[in-house]
């Protein structure tokens, strides 16, 4: 009965959403795999009015998605991500109902499907936050390197815009890096007519990291003065960013060493067994 209800619900939502969400077909986001069957769940989300019922949760998801995919159509990508979660839950509940039917009414299949239907969306949200943390860590590790190059070029007489453009030209092979991807977007904005200040503010907003905000503030406050004052301000900032990078690197090293503890213990147990087994065999003899 539940299986029929789930299939009927899907069919009804599909008919109501058919051709309604074609604009979502062109959206690209890492991790989205059920985009082709998302329209029914997008329609369900629209009818549930989540933006009014759980605005804080929706805003948090949207903010996280924007950090990964950029500001453009961030709201649509957030809704697509939520539709992906609901699609997985529906599929798992349907498979659980089918297993119950095939096992002659045993409720274990439905129970398993229900548990997975709750756990998998939670795992998707957790994975999304892990990706954001990894992105922020990559930006923090690379920002001091970029700032050092900027200081050298500005100290040699280049303007800030010229220095940033030169740094990006030298890092063409790293355009997929989150920091250089956002810097390239910033360069496109000021070259297309936006003011340098507006482009810098957009760069800071897209990154959403405190250290980047400090960097953009320092640049905007000092770049018009130029000369030694600007270079000294950037050097002070560079020192603090290198200290932050050392702290992040130390944390990564501690995490890596902690992950090696279990394999080392397992290897120690295997060695003990290999060494002790002959002794026990001799004692038995």
TrEMBL record:
InterPro entries: T2SS_GspF_dom, T2SS_GspF_sf. Residues 146-277 form the Type II secretion system protein GspF domain. It is found in: Cell membrane. Its main location: membrane. It is a multi-pass membrane protein. The keyword Membrane applies. Keywords: Cell membrane, Membrane, Transmembrane, Transmembrane helix. The chain crosses the membrane at residues 109-128, 260-283. Signal peptide: none annotated. GO terms for cellular component: plasma membrane. PANTHER family: INTEGRAL MEMBRANE PROTEIN-RELATED (PTHR35007), PILUS ASSEMBLE PROTEIN (PTHR35007:SF2). This is Type II secretion system F family protein. The lineage of its organism: Bacteria, Bacillati, Bacillota, Bacilli, Bacillales.
